[in-house]
Automatic annotation (TrEMBL):
Residues 33-269 form the Peptidase S1 domain. It comes from Roseovarius nubinhibens (strain ATCC BAA-591 / DSM 15170 / ISM). This is Trypsin. One of its GO terms (biological process) is proteolysis. CDD domains: Tryp_SPc. The keyword Transport does not apply. Keywords: Disulfide bond, Hydrolase, Protease, Serine protease.
Length: 271
């Protein structure tokens, strides 16, 4: 197997870097990731973009959970073939680094169901050649116990990517990031219906009930994180779907990492 995954936090303490979750103003235009800012690549060392060689475009995101494994969304692979895709980290200017890695193996979650609210919308990519990245810069996959502690801390989650700058718009050339609140799944059930699983299940709801800030098209598969101090990157979600981008009443829906953590570790171990 040879992969060393970031298993989570040792002990019970969760020491987050403080970030204020600022509610979007009602008169703000719906722009950027949406309503985010240019991200520092050094703040997102684990994030990757999936680049389609034939279409010459970045179409999804992902996160490095080891030097040669990427966590992304299963729905990214409806039409794309692994042999046509390369994986790229962010360059120093926030653009995709031209030097990427090819995919040796694609493994989608066996329970993924696009007809059932993108249930279990996670996939793993084994790279043909590992990236040179220290373990301390990999995304950490927290357990449900750790995630429950995070929910008690009143700081923001963050999501980043090279996706559309507004609903239906063009992708960003630069890595963008935005802070969003984790919301009760009941909030997403109000907008999307009972197909959103309640509680700490496979779906995670994040954004703002009033809209204004969100991930968008092209950000799919990218990480939703909570920071643990200045260098810990706890990935709690994978960008899955939404209605439009940053629409009122329709926060973003993410695949909950803790609910899929056992499958992720067992799959990496087996391959």
């Amino acid at each position: 197997m040879g992969a060393v995954l970031a298993m989570g936090i040792a002990g019970g303490a969760v020491a987050q870097a403080q970030m204020e979750c600022i509610e979007p103003k009602s008169d703000q235009p719906v722009l950027r990731i949406v309503n985010g800012d240019r991200a520092k690549p050094s703040d997102w060392p684990f994030i990757v973009g999936l680049y389609h060689q034939g279409a010459k475009t970045q179409f999804c995101g992902g996160s490095l959970i080891s030097q040669n494994w990427v966590l992304t969304a299963a729905h990214c692979w409806g039409e794309a073939r692994p042999q046509d895709v390369s994986i790229h980290r962010a360059g120093s200017d926030g653009r995709l680094d031209p030097k990427g890695r090819r995919i040796a193996k694609l493994i989608a979650h066996p329970g993924y169901d696009p007809a059932d609210m993108n249930l279990h919308d996670v996939a793993l990519l084994k790279l043909a050649e590992p990236f040179d990245i220290p373990n301390s810069q990999l995304a950490i996959l927290p357990s449900k116990t750790v995630e429950a502690k995070l929910a008690d801390v009143r700081t923001c989650s963050e999501v980043a990517g090279w996706g559309a700058l507004q609903s239906g718009g063009a992708a960003s050339a630069y890595l963008m990031a935005v802070n969003v609140r984790q919301l009760p799944t009941e909030t997403c059930r109000k907008g999307y219906g009972p197909g959103i699983r309640p509680g700490q299940g496979p779906h995670l709801c994040a954004g703002y009930e009033e809209g204004g800030k969100d991930s968008c098209q092209g950000d799919s598969g990218g990480p939703l994180i909570v920071r643990d101090g200045p260098t810990g990157f706890l990935q709690v979600g994978v960008v899955s779907f939404g209605k439009g981008c940053a629409w009122k009443g329709f926060p973003g829906v993410y695949a909950r990492v803790s609910d899929h953590r056992d499958w992720i570790f067992s799959t990496v171990e087996a391959h």
